[in-house]
Amino acid sequence: MPLPTVAIVGRPNVGKSTLFNRLVGKKLALVDDRPGVTRDRREGDASLLGLEFRIVDTAGFEDEDPASLPGRMRRQTEAAVREADVALFLIDAREGLTPLDEEIARWLRVEDTPVIVAANKAEGKAGESGRMEAFALGLGEPLAISAEHGEGVVDLFEALRPFVEREESDEEEEEDRPDGPLKLAIVGRPNAGKSTLVNRLLGEERMITGPEAGITRDSISLDWEWQGRPVRLVDTAGLRKRAKIEDKLEKLSVADTLRTIDFAEVVVLLLDATRGLEVQDLKIADAVIEQGRVLVIALNKWDVAEHASSLFNGVKAALEEGLSQLKGVPVLTVSAKTGKGTDTILQVAFELREQWSRRVSTGELNRWFERAIDANPPPAPGGRRIKLRYITQVKTRPPSFVIFGNRVDEIPESYRRYLLNALRRDLELGPVPLRLTLRGSRNPFQPDQR
Fold first, then answer.
1. Alpha carbon distances (Å) from 105 to 17, 66, 101, 137
2. 71 pLDDT band (50/70/90 cuts)?
3. Which of 25, 258, 294, 347 is the most buried (most CB within 10 A)?
4. How does pLDDT run across 104-133, given as a tens digit for each residue?
């Protein structure tokens, strides 16, 4: 059973994202002093004194031309309220009511969604006059809260409880099961078409898109189904070269995207086919592999790419050279605009996650190990033989193995690479990152991450 949903709404800079972060217990939403930081809807699982619900952070509500970026942000906020079980309308108690607050209240009064008014930044008595002004909105008694300091949570609990309280469920948590929701992150440089791809996959204008580069700032998580299989889809902010990142907010966005990679299972690196592969793309791909996540390369805008065949072969060759630690990374051609190739992304992602989650039995693993050692024995540096005794798999996601032997610190990198490539090929583990550790008496922990 899905969790009840609470949508936080209000004009820019009243503390919506700060309250969102407090309720989810993590700094998921970006927070900054300037208005308009949040642009897309952001969702998270919230807990308040035992109440469990889904919380949605929305963009600041502004009165702008519908075709403008603020206008498109406003449509996302309106959609979030209509889909929610209750709307939490935040005002700034220290500033008091503004004409925009009154306009938002007029809109909320004609919507069917129940509304709770909360006067934020009301710590101490500084915001009492602003809270009293909020009675004039005609939406019931305003609560006094401080999202930053955690004040007023009991009153907020009592106000939300009639709308979000439900009986306990015995459903098994599926979050980290290999057959649970596929955690799929879409990453890439700005304007590669990430949000357009997410909208195409979902079949709705869920993410704000447009010609402006860098519209998405937060990593936006969306629960969805593909052919009856659950997916947790994450759209992320564009990643530029570090030298070009001067804005504090963009630095926060980049850090947020890198955290998203860490929590994903499969990461789709979206490239703009009209620009080809650049050094920054290889750096992003390398970061995904180093985190042990499954990597899929998708060439977007393929419907308008010129010299398609040579472009595709050039990208493949550059990947083979630039990602020498992991051969055979899938390269797919897609068009987020037309939808061509988008189903293939999901199909490949599910297949690779299965390989990434695979556990090989100790018997099968050591039979393979004996064959691999017989086919290509370890070298004998200085004429002294290196003895590798046996191998075991210690974990999955990514598959991680330990080889036990003596003098393992003298194993050259080329032989490590041979073992990794043979593992991947002979046991059909596919183009997924593997972890291999050589453990001996003199140097017990010498990891090799590929």
1. 20, 19, 6, 6
2. low
3. 294
4. 999 899 888 999 999 999 887 778 899 999
Interatomic CA distance for residues 330 and 312, integer angstroms: 12
Mean pLDDT of 300-309: 90
Is 17 annotated in some ligand binding site? yes
- Other CB atoms within 10 A of residue 226 CB: 19
68 is in an annotated binding site: no
Tell me if 188 is assigned to a ligand binding site.
yes
Q: Judge whether 191 is annotated as a binding position.
A: yes
- 443 annotated ligand binder: no
Phi then psi dihedrals of residue 85, to 5 deg: -80, -30
Please state, rounded to an integer, the average pLDDT across all residues of the chain: 80
Q: Does 57 belong to an annotated binding site?
A: yes
| Residues paired with 271 in a beta bridge | 299
Highest mean pLDDT range out of 68-72, 317-321, 436-440? 317-321
Using pLDDT thresholds of 50, 70 and 90, give the confidence band for residue 395.
confident
Q: Which amino acid is at 286?
A: D
pLDDT of residue 24: 85
CA separation for the pair 268, 260 (Å, rounded): 12
Is the pLDDT reported for residue 254 higher than 50? Answer: no
119 annotated as a binding-site residue: no
Higher per-residue pLDDT: 306 or 249: 306
Known binder of ligand: residue 314?
no
**Any idea where the domains of the chain sit in the sequence?**
5-164, 182-356, 362-449
Q: Residue 259: what pLDDT?
A: 67
Out of 3.30.365.10, 3.30.1330.10, 3.40.50.10860, 3.40.50.300, which CATH number does the structure's domain 5-164 have? 3.40.50.300
| 440 annotated ligand-binding residue | no
Please indicate if the annotation marks 237 as binding a ligand: yes
| Average pLDDT rounded to a whole number, residues 295-303 | 95
What CATH number belongs to 362-449?
3.30.300.20
